[in-house]
Amino acid sequence: MVTLALCSHYSQLSWKHSVIVALLLFHLGCLQVWASCRILRCNSDFVAVTLDLGGSGGGGGGGSREGNAGYCSALRSYAMCTRRMARACRGDLAYHSAVQGIEDLLIQHSCPRTGPTAQPRPLPQAPISGDACIYEKGYLQREGRTPDYLHCGVFGDPHVRTFRDEFQTCAVQGAWPLIDNEYLYVQATSAPMRGGAYATALITITIIFKNWRQCIEQQIYQAELDSVPAAFVDGSVTSGERQGQHSLSVHSDLPGRQAEIRAAHIGTTLVVRQSGRSLGLSVRSPSAIAEAFTPEQDLQLCVYGCPPSQRLETLPSPSSSSSLSSSSSSSQPSAAAHAHCAALLPARDIYYQACLFDLLATGDLNSSTAAVAALEDARGMISDPNKVHLLLVGKADRSRPCLPLILAVAVLSERLVALWTGRCL
């Protein structure tokens, strides 16, 4: 009887262990699916705040009243951070563990659900010296190497190549943030174009360089359709002078149609250009700069892409495309578009697909220049030539890498159960 009871107990444990192992492996293997979940930022902010308390709140309520109040404030901030992450972190084990842990700690320390929240510690503001306003030189001195750079391109109808090398076509209209971090805010405004149900275009791009120490004061650049100035909105072409060098500068190889903005203090280059009847933006920025944002700044097309509800299939059906000529049949525009884009973009990558989309959606041959220009910018901004061209990945392909892992987890779970069951026979 004792042996039978132990076997029953082990059998129950085996199922629990199997489920835990399966869920853990599934979570690790499919982490890219929840790449936008930033629960680790919430965790690190909570740890940073509680370190300042000297552990007075973590001893089961034995600390001072001031310490416990501070700990409760930190917990409320932690809970608020997780609530902001609820949609992005749905299904993430670490997120749900954090939510449950916060709930337990609030009860353990008798913390009110409402009340003041802990303010995050400000970033250290050490006095700047030397080449502190030249990001690349400062990074090289600190790290002994050049920084890792990320690239984002927004062009055409609009299409977005994110910092994470994801490619999407968006149906967004109105003003949307492309970048929103501690140093930089970039907003694009899109509007419908004439002809085609899918056709939209970027008509305004606004770039705000935020005040940063003694390097720069806030500076704004804005481009509109048919007006891409080679100057900031105040008329200047440089800003942030220090030791004979400027942190910000604007120059143009094609005034009125293209402008390149260099922000030396953050090692970032932005190119704004007009292609056909649409504006486009290309960005090259160090990863540490591009990723310097808080959980509240969770709407950035260059980081997360466009919202799922605003995404389009890359290529519209031939029946919905506009004719390239009034005498063409429904099948001829598609063949002409393929031939035209193949001549400009031989590689069958995302830029070729974007060219097809824009050409079929608008019927305007000039719309293909947006993809060509975006590819040229990518070549100039991505150091590894093998990473310039991206192949379009369908929805089914995105989930496929997890399938072998799911099968492996299933086999592992079955073997664990068989192992424990065999001991009981």
Automatic annotation (TrEMBL):
Its main location: membrane. Signal peptide: none annotated. GO terms for cellular component: plasma membrane; side of membrane. Residues 37-112 form the Repulsive guidance molecule N-terminal domain. It comes from Hucho hucho. Pfam families: RGM_C (PF06534), RGM_N (PF06535). The lineage of its organism: Eukaryota, Metazoa, Chordata, Craniata, Vertebrata. It is found in: Cell membrane. GO terms for molecular function: coreceptor activity. InterPro entries: RGM, RGM_C, RGM_N. It comes from the Eukaryota. Residues 149-381 form the Repulsive guidance molecule C-terminal domain. Belongs to the repulsive guidance molecule (RGM) family. Keywords: Autocatalytic cleavage, Cell membrane, Glycoprotein, GPI-anchor, Lipoprotein, Membrane, Signal. It is a lipid-anchor; GPI-anchor. Coiled coil: none annotated. This is Hemojuvelin BMP co-receptor. One of its GO terms (biological process) is BMP signaling pathway.
